[in-house]
């Protein structure tokens, strides 16, 4: 049997209207969609009626599908001759483990393509009225995660970034802030944490770095959240007419579903 094509697709920061046209095309043609926790139901609404929807979401501290099982699921579905979409929040190659999946497909000798998505690293700050670069303020930006597979984060390197965007740092915000300040980042540096970027429930909390953890805790900021640290955060106070997408109607006037009508099947085995 000729194996099916596999697409590693970025779903963007949350709002399904931020899917690329190429991503929508792939979703409509898929026989199987293997998707993550942060994928909006409106993105899955593009699937055809016959499409298998397999959930492999991960959440820190909760139940998880191991990465090697996800790779095996991709391979087994493609070997059944099915067109497979691996749908991930943001961009598959920006802290999405898309590179690991691509290597697994290479080892299996299976064809695949990458469809980039809008990364929350740039989308979340923009939607909060924070440009990650700004002439005269920040000529570079560093994207980082504070969770490494092995070794220790270079806090001195991160502390020196004009703009620092941190993924998956919300649960460790107090520790992260303390380590950055110990490495030389001023406690007075403007900082923000953005929850549920691009969605109607988007919330933004700003405070000096030394106070951000307490402010986020008081606001009960949850996951998903992205942290931005740097003088560019102060520009938010000047961009007062910038509206979040959750406040606006879609330009075309159409409404996407907030949820799908039925529970989606879990990826219980590679032979679904």
What characteristics describe this protein?
18% strand; five-stranded mixed β-sheet; 26% helix; Methyltransferase, Cobalt-precorrin-4 Transmethylase, Domain 2; 272 residues; 10 strands; 2 domains; disordered C terminus; alpha/beta; five-stranded parallel β-sheet; Cobalt-precorrin-4 Transmethylase, domain 1; 8 helices; single chain
Q: Could you provide a short overview of the structure?
A:
The chain has helices spanning 21-29, 41-44, 67-79, 98-108, 120-127, 155-159, 173-182, 209-218, and strands spanning 6-10, 32-35, 52-55, 84-88, 112-115, 141-145, 163-167, 190-195, 203-208, 225-230. With 272 residues, it is α/β, with parallel strands linked by helices. A five-stranded parallel β-sheet has the order 3-2-4-1-5, sandwiched between helices.
Q: Quickly count the domains.
A: 2
CATH superfamily of the largest domain: Tetrapyrrole methylase, N-terminal domain
Unreliable stretches covering 5 or more consecutive residues = 261-270
The structure class reads alpha/beta
Q: Count the DSSP helices.
A: 8
Shape: globular
| Cα Rg | 20 Å
Please estimate the helix content. Answer: 25-40%
Order of helices and strands: EHEHEHEHEHEHEHEEHE
Mean of the pLDDT scores?
90
Read across the widest sheet, the strand sequence of neighbours is 3-2-4-1-5
- Write down the CATH topology of the largest domain: Cobalt-precorrin-4 Transmethylase, domain 1
CATH level-two architecture of the largest domain = 3-Layer(aba) Sandwich
How many strand elements?
A: 10
Q: Give the percentage of residues in beta strands.
A: 15-25%
* Major β-sheet annotation: 5 strands, parallel
